[in-house]
Amino acid sequence: MxxxxxxxxxxxxxxxxxxxxxxGREKVTGAARYAAEHTPPNCAYGWPVAAGIPRGRVAAVDxxxxxxxxxxxxxxxxxxxxRLAAAEDPTLSLLQEDRVPHRGWYVALAVADTxxxxxxxxxxxRVTYETDDDADVLLRADHPRMYEPExxxxxYPGTRERGDFEGAFAAAPVTVDATYHVxxxxxxxxxxxxxxxxxxxxxxxxxxxxxxxxxxxxDLAALFKLDTxxxxxxxxxxxxxxxxxxxxxxxxxxxxxxxxxxxRPVKVSVPRRExxxxxxxxxxxxxxxxxGAGNDGVITALSHEIATHTSTVTExxxxxxxxxxxxxxxxxxxxxxxxxPLDVPTxxxxxxxxxxxxxxxxxxxxxxxxxxxxMDPIELRMRNEPDTEPDxxxxxxxxxxxxxxxxxAERFRWLPRDPRPGVRREGDLLLGTGVAASTYPVLIxxxxxxxxxxxxxxxxxRVNATDxxxxxxxxLAQIAAGALMAPEDRVRIEIGNSDLPPAMLxxxxxxxxxxxxxxxxxxxxxxxxxxxxxxxxxADGLTVAADTRQETSERSPYARHSFGATFAEVQVxxxxxxxRVRRLMGVFAAGRILNPxxxxxxxxxxxxxxxxxxxxxxxxxxxxxxxFAGCDLAGYHVPACADAPRIEAYWVEEEDPHLNPMGSKGxxxxxxxxxxxxxxxxxxxxxxxxxxxxxxxxxxxxxxx
Amino acid sequence: MQPTNQPADAGGARAAGAARSGTGAGTHAxxxxxxxxxxxxxxxxxxxxxxxxxxxxxxxxxxDHRTTVLDVLREHLGLTGAKKGxxxxxCGACTVLVEGRRANSCLMLAVAQDGRHITTIExxxxxxRLHPLQEAFVERDALQCGYCTPGQICSAVGVLQEAADGFxxxxxxxxxxxxxPVQLTVEEIRERMSGNLCRCGAxxxxxxxxxxxxxxxxxxS
Lengths: 705, 221
Hints:
The complex is a heterodimer. The termini of chain A are far apart. Chain A is built from 17 helices and 27 strands. By secondary structure, chain A is α+β, with helices and mostly antiparallel strands. Chain A has a 7-stranded mixed beta sheet with strand order 3-5-1-14-11-12-13, with helices on both faces. In chain A, strands 18, 19, 20, 25, 26 and 27 form a 6-stranded mixed beta sheet that branches. In chain A, α11 (472-484) runs parallel beside α12. Helices cover 25% and strands 25% of the residues of chain A. Among the domains of chain A are: 24-32 and 447-547, Aldehyde Oxidoreductase, domain 4 (2-Layer Sandwich); 354-443 and 555-705, 2-Layer Sandwich (Aldehyde Oxidoreductase, domain 4), CATH 3.30.365. By secondary structure, chain B is α+β, with helices and mostly antiparallel strands. Chain B has 2 domains: 20-123, Ubiquitin-like (UB roll) (Roll); 132-216, DNA polymerase, domain 1 (Orthogonal Bundle), CATH 1.10.150.120. Chain B has 7 helices and 5 strands; from the N terminus they run ααββαβββαααα. Chain B has helices at 13-18, 40-46, 69-76, 132-140, 149-164, 186-192, 203-216; strands spanning 47-54, 57-64, 95-98, 101-104, 117-119. Chain B has a 5-stranded mixed beta sheet with strand order 2-1-5-3-4. Chains A and B meet through α1, α3, β6 and α14 of A and α1, α3, α4, α5 and α6 of B.
């Protein structure tokens, strides 16, 4: 089979144009409604009760006091909640049994007429537990229950070996052996997870804060033993997700349960401080990286070993060693994941799972190697540029890491750079610069769409895409208009509803590639139909349906990844230990950029989250009580406006015929990938102190200054 | 060991709930007047009649004393532009203007705001004509998911007024003239907008949007 290729050349207008976000006006006027902002008549409110023990079982639930409160409708517990079918995702198997796998697991739901009463009722529920005294919540690399999983998140093999790492490492004249720590990290989208569920004439309608209503609909159908035709899930506007809304989360199951049990519409929002325990988190990783190189900087041995945790509920393994299989040529390589199930909340996806924490460690180690060699870190990366994907030996469909590094170096004014650390002073401040590479895979999934031409010359595109803030609605209109060769303002886009043709969720930076491909296909076919059509269109117009099952099932013979280079300049206050980023710049090679305005926002957004990862975002499981200690926005510091300096994003022109009809690679995640290492490498350059335990908060920095 | 569920933040809500009867605030979106509470005497203890002026409309409401301004707006008046991001005054998504000054509406009990004038994001545009900050946010793409956006914009309205009124910030130079308008540099905007979190990372664009408008209004440098 010859590989599928797509024509190169300039994209059809308006693809690639910086069109203004379609729902911008609704969002700035407050008219855009999110999941909790639909209040059907007679709507009740659910408030969850979170387990207050690290591990054990619910011995008894006394709901008398709660039920005595005026306005309380019911309290659902494992004793009276509707029975669910077995869940594909066990974190959704809620109120089905007495087991408490971790602190914060939901053990009851109070339902009342008002939000105030529901909250008071939840607080009045008396839960008695049998607590296991030996809850095990602390991740250690030498944990005796560590094992090597066969697969890690994304379906990648847990372990890969090529050549003889140990021998090559022992023989290498220059080596780095360093261990890096990444704490648990929390997605914390601004919109808490919320659902409003409403049964009407046998049909269930759910407004859910989700990255993919198709998957929510399918999972609800399975759990509640319904047909998907009996359920409509709406996710029209979603207040961010960053992975944490990728698949259904507890609130939607609780809302549907409560609506079924009470016969009333029910709204459930996850309180902010309960989110870390129930919506997933980035699992902490302890990462040992060993690099062996010749004096010329060419790497001969590369090992990346991950130790991480999962919960006892389900296995999720952060695939942090996977990017090391993509980045640098090395004849001898070893990448290993080890995981231990602890009595902790279940980890899940957070922006660039795997690549983000893995590249923090790998790119830090590369910086350490450059220092050992006395070589510019950009030069070191160029010397280790592979001809083919190291792990698979497949050719890259396109790889412009070197171009991104060069372009960035010029824009950032990287050179001239004195490589010595700790020599640039401005009063009490020490200054430094750092660089790191980034990568993210090109993923794609089958989707379906309909393109419809109306008699009045307008078009309607129907596809269950989700716009979680990416600009998907806008870019899909551009793709459709380009394929139809029609003005963009005559194209209406319908997304965010499970009644629409089913589509890939907004995740894995795969949204536009997946949805755009099928929209392009449907529109191209519709245009052909219109060209062949004689006379006026029928009264109900013309509709073409398409799906990409065939196209997306073909395995590409190419290794397809985005690449990028991130540059940072920091200042370190030698009196307080405070680090501030002065400049942050990313240059990306991510295929064709379909809307520069919204793309720039996504790149900058990813880099901002990476800045938080480097400097402010910290979480830990409380060793005594289990659960996350700092679980709200006061205890977990996401960057604020004053933390964000000048942040710039650029991209290199990249034409790749092996992707999809748009030539795009996906841009939602790569922005975060190289940022933490760029910042922490700059901190080393500023201070001469190598700190391998992010975030670099003042208490960690100051003792070394 | 048999501990009992005792949330750390139970606060006064439990006591308030124990003797309560009826809530009296069951009106649906857009209704200007709440229906009467039941039964009357219990409601008199646990709820109060009050007037809130929201975006120029006077709403006569009988409200549970536990009800925040944010929940009144969102659940009783159908004004869902103000967002609930944390319910703890940590994120700023619920920012509205109370008597012209920005405030976290999740931290304000409605019963304590009787007679106050509140402006929400829904009240900023002049008919179809957007407020200059709303226009600037769209033009600069100073938003992504949009959930923090109404709070950011209301906060920015407050910032412009505070600067015009001479309120200093943490980054205002100590030798700046007293009382006069504060020049809204980029640094001032960053500092003053830091009570409004944005997880999508739209900060650089937000600063540009606010700077555009403050420049037009002559309060920027």
